[in-house]
Amino acid sequence: MSIPRRLILASPAVLAAPATIRAQARGPIFVALAGPMTGGSAAFGLNAQRGTELAVQAINREGGIGGQPLQVEVFDDRSVPRDAAAVAQRIARNDRFLCVLGHVDSSSTLAAMPIYAEERIPVVNASSSNPTITEQGWTNFVRLTIRGDYGAQQYSAYAVNNLGRRNLGIVFANNDFGRALRNDMVRAAQALSARVAGDAGFTPNVDRDFSAIISQFRAAGVDVVMLNCSYTEGGLFAGQMRSAGWSVPIVGPDTLLYDQFLALSQGGAEGAWIMAAYDPYAERPATRGFMDTFQTRFNTLPSQVAVFTFDIYHLLKRVVEAGATRANLIERIKATRFEGAGGNYSWNARGDVVNRTFAVINVRDGRFTSTGLSVNENGLERLRG
Amino acid sequence: MLVARAGWPALAGIVLLIAIPLMVTDRYVLYVLNISMIFAILAIGQNIITGWCGMLTLGHAAFFGVGAYTSGLLAVDHGWPFLACFAAAGLAAGLAGALLSLPCLRVRSDFLSLITIAFAQMFFVVVNNWTELTRGPMGLPRIPRMEVFGWTARTEAEIFWVIGGVLAIVMFAVHRLVSGPIGRAWEAVRDDENAARALGINVTHAKVQAFTIGCVLAGFAGSLYAHTLRIVAPEMFFLEESLIIMQMAILGGLASLPGSLLGAALMVGIPEALRSGNEWLITLRPGIGGALLLAMMIWRPQGLLGRLRDAPPFLLALSAALRGLFVQRSRR
Amino acid sequence: MDVPYLTEQLVNGLATGSIYAVIAVGYAMVYSILYLINFAHGDVIMVGAFAALTLIGMAFPVPAAILAACAVGALVALAVERIAYRPVRYANRVVPMISALGAGLVLATLAHLVWGPEVQPFPQLIPRGNIEIAGIAVPQQALIILGLSLAIVMFASFLLERTRLGRATKCVCQDIYAAQLMGIPVNLIIPLVYAVGGFLGVAGGILFAMYFNAVFIQMGLLATTKAWAAAMLGGVGNFYGAALGGLMLGVAEMLAVVTVGSAYKDGVALVIIVAVLLLRPQGLFGRRVVERS
Lengths: 385, 332, 293
Hints:
The structure holds three protein chains of three kinds. By secondary structure, chain A is an alpha/beta fold. Chain A folds into two domains: 5-146 and 283-345, Rossmann fold (3-Layer(aba) Sandwich), CATH 3.40.50.2300; 149-276 and 358-383, 3-Layer(aba) Sandwich (Rossmann fold). Chain A has 13 helices and 14 strands. Residues 1-25 of chain A have low confidence and may be disordered. The N and C termini of chain B lie far apart (49 Å). Chain B has one domain (2-238). By secondary structure, chain B is mainly α. Chain B is 75% helix and 2% strand. In chain B, helix 4 runs antiparallel to helix 10 and helix 11 crosses helix 12. Chain B has 14 helices and four strands. By secondary structure, chain C is mainly alpha-helical. Chain C has a domain at 21-218. Chain C has eleven helices and four strands. Chains B and C meet through helix 5, helix 11, helix 13 and helix 14 of B and helix 4, helix 9 and helix 11 of C.
């Protein structure tokens, strides 16, 4: 039952709506945004807030959701599981919220989900990629970002098939994000008949000296570096590679797709390949519109968190105006096909997005540029099945 | 006598413990109280080591983590019932504490703090990397709830009763300890080791005892934490947590039982009260903590609830000196 | 493992080690006088490094910016001494450490407010590239850092050995009361030592920033742990011991990466601290000091 987008984007006239909407919409529609607004991961929370700001403006300018204004309340979990649980308790204490948009990092989401599941509060997630989240059997969860294991396979396939490299050097941040990626990459490398020549972890937010790892990788004959970390250490690593006079291609996830990655590398990021879960340079009006607005307003590249957050609000608007309530929100989302700034989305029964491919971004002349290439998945079939 | 001395406050405490979950229905408030009580147990343990026995330990969170992981792993990987996990957690943490303190006794007191810091960080590094055992940075989700003889604590109120019960027992036991000869021995060691030795107190024995008991309490707290949050992850036991526990003990009053309660309640409660609002306040929290420490050292070395009479003499001397500094310039 | 690889790693280890050495020397100087673990030292360094970044960003000429930042470090160290240490100088050792911790936290929060939580890139001041030595390509940057660190340590050593200030400091180290009796202005010397310690520390911090191209708030804690391990290894309070300890720590970390794996690199410093404290508390070159109560 999908209403053509034209109708929804039209004026409040569309809101001679079915009784379900009118009956429940007696006041603003509240959504809870949960993520790290302070602390080491504050940059991600900031992106979520920015995506929220743009979405709320756009939606309320068009009359809100079902005629009611959209209001978002922000909760800070500092990326700490204890705080995430506290936030979940706080959100769960009353019935105000239509759903929760969050959390950002996977451990916080894992800590908060039991509480949301108990209270049957829907959770629509923009950025937690850990595969175990959708394997816990929670039926109130749906996410827009691509699962980490699928991602790891894509990054490896790109390095091996597209770039033709056989000796992978895997660098990873020793947290839930990096380590999970590394594990899946090792498996993918096996399936692709490539060698893991280097395998080095570091303590995120503590370890900033990679000279030893670089020397080690170089001596082991690594011909492509898989950078599984966020833009801070990624940028430093690339810069130190350049200092050491070692230039091999770098392949990394979209946690590197930040201007600070380029700044911190001081030129070392040139030529790096980034696999983004959305294509920031796609020639689609929705994407272009969002990118331009974001760039004008905040003067920086939006991250994947910002894009997916933005899309979630529009997704909610679509589904609620089509008659979804808090009780069936997740099922309705899973049954929807949605097109947003980040591309096309459809979901499987577990809440993961399906049929999404990574966009290949290249760093050229000190800037991120779209390549329009796609990942050659030859060999990955052995892992799926 | 002992009961009489502990009398009124204890009775009031027990009544409160039973009544609060019946009166307070907001699950968030109960949750915050639960976490406060867990940290109160931690603060009491810290207080035993630092407040009553005078050893500066800055790695208490590591023993907290030992307890939490022991309890969680036994429950998830081996299906042990909660009470057994709880006991094992205390045992494991206590053992770790004893093992750590034994060789450290020959080390100068100011170095003990360094060793405890190092141990805390080593614990984190090991837990983060030994993924086969601890699942590493991904943490251990789906820890079962607490259950006592077949009855499972499901709601925040029921969890409150379990944690509250443990806290009450701990407070009673610790009160007996510190009011008796063991506690007095600790205080003697804290105030002047040589004199204590001259009086026939086995200083080594007292120190190891205090350290071990403090760690056992941390282990129990860890078990409660693991089964309340139902997830453990290495980042829950950073060095920062140790500093926070230390601050709780100091704020509330070193060598004060009610002080530990108050310190924990304040340091858990205030950030929660500030949660939905002001971003500035949240950013400032560590700075506020640091400034608080400084201010406490200067003006109220016995903490908010410590009794001046009980304040360690070194703190009293310090306070007088500091006040002298601020009231009139002193020349040395 | 072939020679060029090992040499490269060795140079890496020595370069990082020399940075630790410069910072450790600052610690050692303070500790040798007052037997205080200066928990705030790392945060002083961090503030100084950020100050350098800001000054360079404001287009100050680089050498001036660095000197100014070191001076800032000295000033901050002085402030910390006055507020957090001086009042408690003669009290039981536990207390000043607690106030040092507090001071460190306050500094870290101030830095967070002024410069924000993100890692800031530090400009590449030392030219990159390799130098051929005996047929092995050695990174130029590492060598320059090594050289600069040695120069700084030697300068500090010169201060200590050849100047009246240095001699007075050594007197105060040996016996603070006797020094007072001899007319040495102890109340001047002590803050001065803190200031010099802060100055040196920030110099080390800037070297760190130059080598890794980054300044960040946590570098305070990092500096604290590593420099402490270095100072303990060499023998706390022993100036040259601290410098040597730093070099050894750098090499030890490099060995750990080569053998066990990079994830455990930070553990090396901790293991060293614990091992030294338990097995040989006076470090490799220190004198055995009797426990004070």
